[in-house]
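User: Modeling request: complex.
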Amino acid sequence: MSDEVIYYIDDLEPGMTAVFGKTITEADILMFAGASGDTNPVHLDDEFASQTMFEGRIAHGLLVSSLISTVLGTRLPGPGCIYVSQTLKFMAPVRPGDTVKARVTLTEVDKEKKRVTCETNCTVGDRTVVAGEAKLMVQRRPAPE
Amino acid sequence: MSDEVIYYIDDLEPGMTAVFGKTITEADILMFAGASGDTNPVHLDDEFASQTMFEGRIAHGLLVSSLISTVLGTRLPGPGCIYVSQTLKFMAPVRPGDTVKARVTLTEVDKEKKRVTCETNCTVGDRTVVAGEAKLMVQRRPAPE
Amino acid sequence: MSDEVIYYIDDLEPGMTAVFGKTITEADILMFAGASGDTNPVHLDDEFASQTMFEGRIAHGLLVSSLISTVLGTRLPGPGCIYVSQTLKFMAPVRPGDTVKARVTLTEVDKEKKRVTCETNCTVGDRTVVAGEAKLMVQRRPAPE
Amino acid sequence: MSDEVIYYIDDLEPGMTAVFGKTITEADILMFAGASGDTNPVHLDDEFASQTMFEGRIAHGLLVSSLISTVLGTRLPGPGCIYVSQTLKFMAPVRPGDTVKARVTLTEVDKEKKRVTCETNCTVGDRTVVAGEAKLMVQRRPAPE
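Assistant: Request completed. Predicted assembly structure:
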């Protein structure tokens, strides 16, 4: 397993940051609808969506937020960490074709309790679309054998 | 648009509840990995995952949580509601083949501010796997023309 | 199971109606091609399709028709009903970007035989694109225990 | 266009037949759910489905039927034909992992009106799961230039 691990709790410090970006396409929205079962017409039906305050179809909030999980699980802290909790505030809509950047910044590192707190923000250009905080458990570096 | 709307804020009362169930399959995990970019080996790599505390592959926490969005967006309050925020505590792992039930229960309905608060829980059998709370904005019933 | 059931045969009357709308995107056509194996170039190949009487790519007739199954299986009569038969007349082409509304209207309800007949129409704007009829079996409300 | 065309109406005779086979996987069911919006729990939720007469999850009837469109649009008569109508009787359930064979057999060929009628059957092993009939329009061979 250690081959895949990028950071142990011993390696982490507040202020460390990582980002993952992805363009949200029609196909992402469709797959997310299939995997979640969320067929809300604001995501799938142009005519319905154009009559809402969004004036057009938008991506699922949890699809956008899933990019946070990508940073946590693949970059910082990366494989082996355990996702304890996440808060999400949906600040602005994301439309098909928008490119979302999810950024994770460590704010607290408790090496004794192996706990990490992170600020987790998703942006499109200069606008924050999802703001939140994640808590994780990260294992200690194994003692040399 | 009103054809698709199930509930206006006027129709909602604390205690109303709705559920959506789905078996989490390998295909769901794959599609979620594709749409999110979250390729953490704990979700995709049997050998890696079997060496973690989970002793096998688990579904993404946000994939499991996405069933909450399905209830909110398609059943209660249903199409037309605006997702304001969500908190999520990941309590226990979900494995491929597990059937998750997401249940939404309204806890506060502020008809003046058009705001609703809900308890949002996901269970596998009797075990809570994700616990949390959602806040939404729900429109008023349009005045008759 | 009864949590998910919306209507029993006892609850149904001729004239009841429900609708589901969805914009047919490139991604839908691609996924339907993948799941069905239907790689007819009139759906996938702009150059071929532009030389047909349709003068451009069109969605699969059964993809458009699948929205009928969505209404039947999720809204009216909803979960628990059994799909007995369906007739489909393909009246006009649907192009990527068109928003299709599938409408189901109950025409006959035989409470003794637990059989329902429905008119099933798909429209784009004012134009009917698929016309047809479905027959279903719907269970009786369970006797109180 | 003629490069892709397999048969013109001039080439068709009653009795001609073609088949397409495909194993219906979890991924097909998930993609079909996304593209159609049909999240009926009999397709997606093991616990719900195990309490129905099917005693487990089944594929969408129109997903199974979509293999007919594959034969018509890619093999017999193939690219360039126009789908006029389809009838479908759902005779038996198809489960994830079942291999479906869709067979099309021409029953009437009206060269004057450029119309073809076909028997369209889907089978799993020896059991017919969908029976029906399709009508198509097929173009005449272009006159040599």
